[in-house]
């Protein structure tokens, strides 16, 4: 009898887990890829369907277990985003940040806000940095820029990594992305700088150093060119 009971419980839990995963993925529009991420409004979609009231009955009422389920599906979302063409270092960063927020969550509202924030960031990043439509060579170049944004980086470094002739790569890169390689480097770096500034965890000189700029004055000039304001004016 005990064995039968344990088997029934296992089957029930397995069915519930599958239902949970299906419901969660349907709500987030992340099954294998993210075809709709550029157009759907994450906030409206999730609030309209009341995500947590749908999935909560399928799992334990233990809040710490609920956190683990949410973390699992955060990982699925970011992995799907990576498969859909978002550079993996971006998705890994977003996943790590979401995990940190999940561990800090005190209630369901905190978890809901974590998911909403993640989807909003994925949508924004996907619009700006999706590489799926690029050639393999340009994809490699963009991935390299993103993964080395915390180091001193030049167009020559990117060209050397890809192993292409510089003039040819520059023309191909501009044709496919609309940016020069140098513009892409500084856009990625200043986007990262803006996040760090708004996070208020580092001083401006520390941020310049973290992003591989030779001096704060050079970083400040680059930041103003690409962001339209000085670093110290961000978030004011």
Strand content is under 5%
What is the CA-CA span between the terminal residues?
Answer: 67 Å
What composes the largest sheet?
A: none
Let me know the number of strands.
Answer: 0
Give an account of the 3D structure:
The protein has helices at 2-28, 42-49, 51-55, 63-83, 88-104, 108-129, 136-147, 155-162, 166-177, 181-199, 204-210, 216-227. With 236 residues, it is mainly alpha-helical. The longest helix has 27 residues, at 2-28. The model is unreliable at 5-18 and 20-40 (pLDDT under 50).
Blueprint (SSEs and pairs):
Layout: H1 2-28, H2 42-49, H3 51-55, H4 63-83, H5 88-104, H6 108-129, H7 136-147, H8 155-162, H9 166-177, H10 181-199, H11 204-210, H12 216-227
Helix pairs in contact: 4-5, 4-6, 5-6, 7-8, 7-10, 10-12
Jot down its keywords:
236 residues, mainly alpha, 72% helix, globular
Entry summary:
72% of the residues lie in helices and 0% in strands. The chain has 236 residues and is mainly alpha-helical.
């Amino acid at each position: 009898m005990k064995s039968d009971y344990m088997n029934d419980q296992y089957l029930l839990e397995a069915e519930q887990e599958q239902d949970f995963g299906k419901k969660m993925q349907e709500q987030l529009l992340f099954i294998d890829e993210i075809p709709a991420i550029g157009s759907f409004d994450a906030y409206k979609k999730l609030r309209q369907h009341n995500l947590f009231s749908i999935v909560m009955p399928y799992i334990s009422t233990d809040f710490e277990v609920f956190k683990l389920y949410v973390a699992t599906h955060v990982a699925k979302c970011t992995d799907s985003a990576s498969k859909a063409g978002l550079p993996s270092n971006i998705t890994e960063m977003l996943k790590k940040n979401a995990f940190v927020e999940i561990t800090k969550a005190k209630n369901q509202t905190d978890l809901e806000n974590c998911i909403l924030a993640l989807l909003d960031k994925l949508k924004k990043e996907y619009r700006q940095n999706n590489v799926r439509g690029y050639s393999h060579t340009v994809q490699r170049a963009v991935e390299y820029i993103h993964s080395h944004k915390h180091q001193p980086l030049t167009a020559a470094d990117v060209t050397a990594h890809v192993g292409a002739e510089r003039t040819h790569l520059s023309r191909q890169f501009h044709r496919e992305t609309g940016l020069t390689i140098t513009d892409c480097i500084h856009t990625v770096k200043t986007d990262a700088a803006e996040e760090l500034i708004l996070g208020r965890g580092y001083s401006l000189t520390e941020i310049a150093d973290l992003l591989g700029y030779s001096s704060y004055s050079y970083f400040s000039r680059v930041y103003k060119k690409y962001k339209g304001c000085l670093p110290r004016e961000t978030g004011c």
